[in-house]
Structure formats: structure tokens, C-alpha cells
Amino acid sequence: MSRPTIRTQRLVLEPMSWDHLEDLCELDADAEVMRFLGAPRTADEVRAKIPDRLSPSDDALGLGFWCGFERGMFVGWWCLSLEGPELAEIGWRLHRRAWGRGLATEAAAALLEHGFETVGLERIIAETLAVNLASRGVMRKLGMTHESTEPIGPNEPEATLPGAAEGMVRYEIIRERWASG
What are the residues whose beta carbons fall under 8 Å from the beta carbon of 175, sequence distance 6 or more? Predict the structure, then answer.
């Protein structure tokens, strides 16, 4: 199995590739987009991340990173990455022009379906800073429940981010709850 192209009502999610580098560089260069993730990234920093996001082992399982397009315009990326046996983490990063329109939820819901139905995952988690209310809202809309809030240690990379003192939250959903939802 490899990562399929996934279609939703408004989006086409293409498996991430080197062809998306220019869009990814523009996304990560935006300080507002990176507000809860760290400093904006240079093109060289983004280029250095691409090999990790194109893992052949994830791809063989039908997992990994997707770039989302609405009517041909890049709006962001989503990921479903293996974290352990039958466990994956879902995540997303959207261009500002896509904020507040339900696109994060729409694509993430399609990836939950793919993860549970096609890949056979039993549990999917998501993490963000506690102060990232927009991402936490998406997690709740997906039917995920808040499982924990952990402090961020002073030596962790996230320690300098705005709101880091509030900690990191973890949400999760299990296949049975997703199927009944």
C-alpha cells in the first residue's frame, strides 16, 4: 500500500513530494503560521525536513504527509505518522488564507477515516500547545478527547514559544469511538 490521493468535498490531498517544496517554503516562512511551532523557517531548513516527511516505511503503510489543494491552490499539509503499533499521530499546518474555513477539520476527518478503515489503526493522537485554541477546536470537532496536559521542560525546543508555560496537550480517538461517532 502507498499513500493514496484523498479527495474531500473541497480538497485534494496529494502525497507530499519534492514537487511541493516551493509551497512548503512559503508556508513555513510565515511567522503567524509558525507562531506555536517556532521561528519561521528558511528554504534550506524546509528542504532539510523533506526527507523525514517522505519516509518509505510510512509510505508503504499508507501513512505520511499530504499537501492539500483547494481548486488547485495550495492550502497546507496534513500528516498521519506511525507512532507505535496500530497508533498514529495526526497533524496539520495551514496557510493563513485557509484559516477559519473548516478545511483543517475536513481533511483531518478524511485522514482519520483512511487511518482507521484502510490502514487499520486502533488509536490516533494529536498534540499541540495548550494555548493553540484553533487546533484544539479541530481536535474536538474530530471527536478526539483531551487525554493529558504535560509541562514543557525548560530545555525543550517548545519552551520559548508563547504560552509554553501552559504545557502541551494530547488528544486521542480510538477506532471504536470513531466508528460510533
Answer: 116, 121, 122, 123
From 27-36, 105-114, 127-136, 160-169, the region with the lowest mean pLDDT: 160-169
CB count within 10 Å of CB 145 equals 12
Cβ count near 154 (within 10 Å): 8
Ordered by start, the domain boundaries in the chain are: 6-180
Backbone angles phi, psi at 128, to 5 degrees: -160, 170
Query: Which strands form 145-150's sheet, in the order they lie side by side?
Result: 6-7, 12-15, 64-70, 73-84, 87-94, 123-129, 168-174, 145-150
DSSP 158: G
Domain 6-180 has what CATH class? alpha beta
The C-alpha atoms of residue 172 and residue 159 are separated, in whole angstroms, by: 23
Mean pLDDT of 91-117: 97
pLDDT band at 95 (very low <50, low <70, confident <90, very high): very high
pLDDT at 157: 83
Ramachandran angles phi, psi of 30, nearest 5°: -85, 115
| Three-class SS state of 86 | coil
Closest among 176, 98, 91, 103 to 132, alpha carbons compared = 91
| Residue showing cell 461517532 | 181
Strands 87-94 and 123-129: parallel
C-alpha cell at 40: 519561521
